[in-house]
Design a protein that fits this description.
The structure holds two protein chains of two kinds. By secondary structure, chain A is mostly helical. Chain A is about 60% helix and about 0% strand. In chain A, helix 1 runs antiparallel to helix 3. By secondary structure, chain B is mainly alpha-helical. The chains are: A mainly alpha, B mainly alpha. At the A-B interface, helix 2, helix 3, helix 4, helix 5 and helix 6 of A face helix 1, helix 2 and helix 3 of B.
Chain lengths: ~260, ~110
Amino acid sequence: VTGLRATDPLSRVVTEVSDLLGRIDHVLVHYGVCTGYPDHPRLLAALRDFGALPGDVFAHLREVDPASLSGAAVDVGEVRDGYRRLADRLDRTAGGLYWGGPAREAFNGYWAPLAGYLSGGPVSMVDTIAATAQRGEAIAAWWYGIRGAVVTFFRAVMANGIAVVLRGVEVDPHAGAPVPTEVLGPELPEIDGFDRVGLAASHGADLFLGAVGAAVRAEPARPVPVGELPYRDGGGGRGRDRVAGATGDAWVSVGELDAVDG
Amino acid sequence: MTNRNRNPETSLLDLAGEVAATASALRDAAGTLPGLDPGGYAFGASAPGLLGRRCAALHQEWVAALAARAAEANGQADRLDETARRLRAVATNYAGADRAVQAAARRIRADRS
């Protein structure tokens, strides 16, 4: 199944969850939300928020593969590593530059912010690309959190008897309204004329949308800089001009010429 | 910029070459970055309602972040290319001045002899 990994707890119960939510959807479609369910206003609000029945929501989220998002983050991390290697090599080369005098001093003033923009400055390209990779990893983790919420939901409905009650629901679309062939489990009381199946379906839908909704609303960690990092040359552009000036004869002394191989 | 691993053999032309190579690598990175978007579907943006809205927002943010990183790489590549050009110009000027001084020295020696 797309989007599932052996290490993902949801992968072990995806069929069971899908089957259970299919039964919940089926009951909701035919009976609507059980008004006898104490939290039915919350369930109605959640259904409006999601714009879909629980089974449909699950169908969408099971198709998302957090590993593909994680892979994109890893790829961005490789770009970050590449930047670091480039900066290190550039740093070594510039550090060994055999050049002295006032022109070199002017160059240093130009070079420091330029090199620092790539790496080592107050905020550099290495920093922004690293933050981007971390955000990608955080979004993948966010998705694993959503999948984990589904597992938590499933454990709950297995423990509280909802899954057992809904086992008897016939989900054949041609079968009309669901008629429990066998209602199992006496845990849920009958309320206001709604049978246990209707109550269990509403309760189950509320639990599912509540758990998934909380995970969806959670903010992935590590905000990412979405704007371009501005370049500041440290001298309002003067550094560049001064380097241009270094090409003029007035900046060249015999001593400097001795230090430069042509 | 620190001066660790100093290489005392580096000339202006060496540095210009390294700067240009870095610019080229950054342009490559800028071209690669937009391709690291797995698409809205991979983010879950095709889902309806709350889930789809959240996923679409995260996807848009990811795309914007990649675009910003690519713009940073391209901008830095432009600056580095310009720097390499200027470094080569400086090296050429130094070489020209060096030749002029040597020629002047020869003329002075010739005048004295």
